[in-house]
């Protein structure tokens, strides 16, 4: 008997994309002056949920992501699920806040269950792969020209996950 498709399983996490450049190392000639122009940084914050089948759901903001933001996302998600759904989250304070814990019984009545990973185990959360691919592969240098362009580009990329942008998660075949 195959149980594939009995539940939906998503991995969730938040991240940000920032206009500040990241320069881990470099070199220059002894008499050469090198500078990197910078301005006040702007960033786009995202909370996303992704499945191994590349189903992606996300919300973005230019504000900080706090417990209220996470709560609202989970609340909205709980009304949109079609079958029993599990979301795997890390142990971030905003995920385990009192307000979140108080809503869990209501979400479970709707078929949404939250599973918390063990502490210090980001390698178990495939949402980390989503953010890495977004920042290192899918965004282009011209996407960082302005706050609006960055916001649009991040939204465009996340909308294309599972359509034109796919992540090949290795997993077991349960059949």
How would you characterize this protein structure?
- With 175 residues, this protein is of the alpha/beta class.
- The chain has one domain (8-17, 39-159): Ribonuclease H-like superfamily/Ribonuclease H (Nucleotidyltransferase, domain 5, 2-Layer Sandwich), CATH 3.30.420.10.
- The protein contains four helices and five strands.
- The protein has a five-stranded mixed sheet, sandwiched between helices.
- Helix 2 (98-110) links the parallel strand 4 (85-89) and strand 5 (112-116).
- Helix 1 (67-80) runs parallel beside helix 2 (98-110).
- The longest helix has 14 residues, at 67-80.
- It is elongated and about 65 Å long.
- The relative contact order is 0.19.
- The mean pLDDT is 88.
CA gyration radius, whole angstroms: 19 Å
User: How does the major sheet shape up?
Assistant: 5 strands, mixed
H/I helix tally: 4
Give the total of beta strands: 5
At CATH level 3, the topology is Nucleotidyltransferase, domain 5
Distance N to C terminus: 8 Å
Fold blueprint:
Layout lengths: L7 E11 L24 E8 L5 E6 L5 H14 L4 E5 L8 H13 L1 E5 L10 H12 L8 H13 L16
Parallel strand pairs: 1-4, 4-5
Antiparallel strand pairs: 1-2, 2-3
